[in-house]
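Quick one: structure for this chain?
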Amino acid sequence: MLNQQILLWCGALLISLVLTGFLGVKYYIHQKIQAGIESGIATYILQTQNQAIRLKELQTKEYQEEDPKIKEKIITKYQVIQEKDLSCENQLKEIKNALELFYNPNSNVHP
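Got it. Here's what it folds into:
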């Protein structure tokens, strides 16, 4: 009878060890899967951020290329008009040229 009890306890111990091992392996696999998913999410986020940075870099380069042209337009559009001849006809002509230059900066009218 003592042998049967020892065998019973040994069997129970063996079953509990097998179950503990199974649960440990299951937990390890779960952790590896979760780490893989988190790694995939982090990679996706990193790629998205890099794409946004490249887009901003391209926009900055385009702006830097356009900046001198914009400044030149502003300087041309808001030039100080200095009249040489103070006659009414010449003043009217200068005003028309200034308005033409203001509303149509690409026109060939120069003060």
